[in-house]
TrEMBL record:
This is DUF1048 domain-containing protein. InterPro entries: UCP029876.
Amino acid sequence: MATGSNEPKSRYLQYLEMVTGSLEDKRRYRQYKARIKQLPEDYRTAVEAMERYLMHFGPADGAGAMAMYEDLADLFERSAADGTPIRDIFGEDPVEFVEAFMANYPIGQYRARERNRFTSAISRAAGEDTARDDRTDR
């Protein structure tokens, strides 16, 4: 059923991916989950909590999200191997950590752009001078 990288996809596979999403992304997600399952319990608990947060607030794009999850697995695999304490990974503010983590992925950067656009619009509405006019970002 799988095709080689140089082989064109059959109409069936094209239709299937149109309905279900990328089969490659699904394979990568299963591999990610298998990697997370191998972590020590406390690291796995932390990753699963971060994953839940990212599912709600992170990139929704399949390929972008998978790159982020794979990097997350890399981070926690290295941290577990080095014996890095969980709190040393996240710091005092886990939300700040996860927001900074998400900002490294292009699909997630739209949130920062929209936050800036929103803040500028409110400043303009309040009659405050803004140094940057975000209306040109559209």
